[in-house]
Amino acid sequence: MLQPGPTATGAIKPDLLAPGLEILSLDASTNKRYLRQSGTSMSAPFVAGAAACLHAANPKLTPAQVKEYLMHKAIPQTKIDKNAQGAGLLNI
């Protein structure tokens, strides 16, 4: 289960949200069937893909600038506490 922030230093975490609930994914144990999985392992590829696309379109961006852009463009979720969503839902 996601442990929302703030961190010990007061930082809001997570940085942003991405789809990660009930994602249809290949079953790694068989490589022959699909199943629905949830968690960071399902949401991280969405963020990594968004970051890769953004960097490919703007190769001079630093990793910090990519993160800043993704967070700036995220859509705040009104029914979720700031410490459980960070900047909001990934939007690219």
Automatic annotation (TrEMBL):
InterPro entries: Peptidase_S8/S53_dom, Peptidase_S8/S53_dom_sf, Peptidase_S8_Ser-AS, Peptidase_S8_subtilisin-like
A single GO molecular function term of this UniProt record: serine-type endopeptidase activity
UniProtKB keywords: Hydrolase, Protease, Serine protease
Stretches that traverse the bilayer: none
GO BP annotations listed: proteolysis
Highest rank taxon of the organism: Bacteria
Signal peptide (from-to): none
Ranges of residues in domain Peptidase S8/S53: 5-88
SUPFAM superfamilies: Subtilisin-like
One Pfam family, short name: Peptidase_S8
Family named by the database record: Belongs to the peptidase S8 family.
Protein name per the record: S8 family serine peptidase
Organism: Aminipila terrae
Lineage: Bacteria, Bacillati, Bacillota, Clostridia, Peptostreptococcales
